[in-house]
Amino acid sequence: MNTDTSVNNTLLAFLLALKELDSPLTTAEKDRFLQVFQGRLMDSSPEVWTNLIQPALQQTLQSNAAFYHRFQDYKLQLDTLDEQVPGDLLPSEATLGHIAPLPKTTLNSFPIPVPQADKGYEISNMVYRVVNTPEPIETANKLGLNSLSQWLANRCKVSV
């Protein structure tokens, strides 16, 4: 599995697990996810992902057992696929823009770089936008990822 696939699988697993949380994220959890993803997803460098984002994400997820368990289940399902997730199972840019517009500033009022719009950044842009909303769980639920969950369940023997 190449780095891009691994990153996309991790980010999709994050969104799928997020939308299924029964309890809201704490303010501290929201802040940690903002710190993990703030601007870093736009850097396509594998070193940034491996050395900064992935370890910080793992640490943050592990502090919420229910979230981490769901994340691990989805990550395993995505990693065992022998095909790519069809693009039509992800929200369009228009849908994403309506549900989670690009934030104008960070919490510290510094400008946020605009994520690149090409296909390689589609999933990272989605995560970036979702974690920058006031209620990431509600936002993730509005993305229409249930069809992706069903598609995964039909292709994988690992159940969530």
Write structural notes for this entry.
The protein contains 8 helices and no strands. With 160 residues, the protein is mostly helical. Helix 2 (27-37) packs antiparallel against helix 3. 31% of the residues are buried.
Provide the succession of SSEs. HHHHHHHH
The domain count comes to 1
| Broad structural category | mainly alpha
Number of helices: 8
Strand content: under 5%
Query: How many angstroms separate the termini?
Result: 22 Å
Radius of gyration: 15 Å
Helix content: 55-70%
**What kind of sheet is the major sheet?**
none
Report the strand count. 0
Unreliable segments (pLDDT under 50, ≥5 consecutive)? 107-119
Shape: globular
Mean pLDDT: 83
Question: How would you summarize what this structure contains?
Answer:
The chain has 8 helices and no strands.
Task: Walk me through the topology.
Layout (H helix, E strand, L loop, with lengths): L2 H17 L7 H11 L8 H17 L2 H15 L13 H7 L22 H10 L4 H7 L3 H10 L5
Task: Give short descriptive properties of this protein.
160 residues; mainly alpha; globular
